[in-house]
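Deliverable D4.2, example record:
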Amino acid sequence: MLENLSEQTQLILIVVLLAILFFAVLKNNKRNKEKRYDRKSRNFRENIYKKKKERDKEEQS
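Output generated by the structure prediction step:
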Protein backbone atom coordinates (compact mmCIF):
# COMPACT_ATOMS: atom_id res chain seq x y z
CA MET A 1 0.00 0.00 0.00
CA LEU A 2 2.76 2.40 0.93
CA GLU A 3 5.25 1.02 -1.61
CA ASN A 4 4.51 3.72 -4.17
CA LEU A 5 5.36 6.49 -1.65
CA SER A 6 8.91 7.58 -0.94
CA GLU A 7 10.55 6.65 2.35
CA GLN A 8 10.40 10.22 3.56
CA THR A 9 6.68 10.48 2.79
CA GLN A 10 6.03 7.18 4.57
CA LEU A 11 7.90 8.41 7.64
CA ILE A 12 5.97 11.70 7.70
CA LEU A 13 2.69 9.82 7.30
CA ILE A 14 3.50 7.47 10.16
CA VAL A 15 4.47 10.36 12.46
CA VAL A 16 1.23 12.21 11.62
CA LEU A 17 -0.86 9.08 12.25
CA LEU A 18 0.87 8.49 15.59
CA ALA A 19 0.21 12.11 16.59
CA ILE A 20 -3.48 11.75 15.67
CA LEU A 21 -3.76 8.55 17.69
CA PHE A 22 -1.99 10.16 20.65
CA PHE A 23 -4.40 13.10 20.72
CA ALA A 24 -7.38 10.77 20.30
CA VAL A 25 -6.27 8.84 23.38
CA LEU A 26 -5.78 12.07 25.35
CA LYS A 27 -9.25 13.29 24.39
CA ASN A 28 -10.82 9.96 25.33
CA ASN A 29 -9.00 9.98 28.67
CA LYS A 30 -10.30 13.48 29.42
CA ARG A 31 -13.83 12.45 28.49
CA ASN A 32 -13.65 9.40 30.75
CA LYS A 33 -12.48 11.54 33.67
CA GLU A 34 -15.40 13.91 33.15
CA LYS A 35 -17.80 10.97 33.08
CA ARG A 36 -16.75 9.96 36.56
CA TYR A 37 -17.86 13.44 37.72
CA ASP A 38 -15.31 14.35 40.34
CA ARG A 39 -15.01 11.10 42.22
CA LYS A 40 -12.52 12.66 44.63
CA SER A 41 -15.02 15.22 45.86
CA ARG A 42 -17.86 12.72 46.30
CA ASN A 43 -18.55 11.24 49.71
CA PHE A 44 -19.68 7.66 49.19
CA ARG A 45 -20.70 7.12 52.83
CA GLU A 46 -23.07 10.10 52.76
CA ASN A 47 -24.54 8.97 49.44
CA ILE A 48 -25.21 5.49 50.78
CA TYR A 49 -26.95 6.84 53.88
CA LYS A 50 -29.07 9.21 51.77
CA LYS A 51 -30.16 6.37 49.50
CA LYS A 52 -30.92 4.17 52.49
CA LYS A 53 -33.08 6.90 54.07
CA GLU A 54 -34.93 7.41 50.79
CA ARG A 55 -35.60 3.66 50.53
CA ASP A 56 -36.84 3.55 54.12
CA LYS A 57 -39.23 6.45 53.44
CA GLU A 58 -40.58 4.70 50.34
CA GLU A 59 -41.12 1.47 52.24
CA GLN A 60 -42.99 3.29 55.03
CA SER A 61 -45.33 5.02 52.57
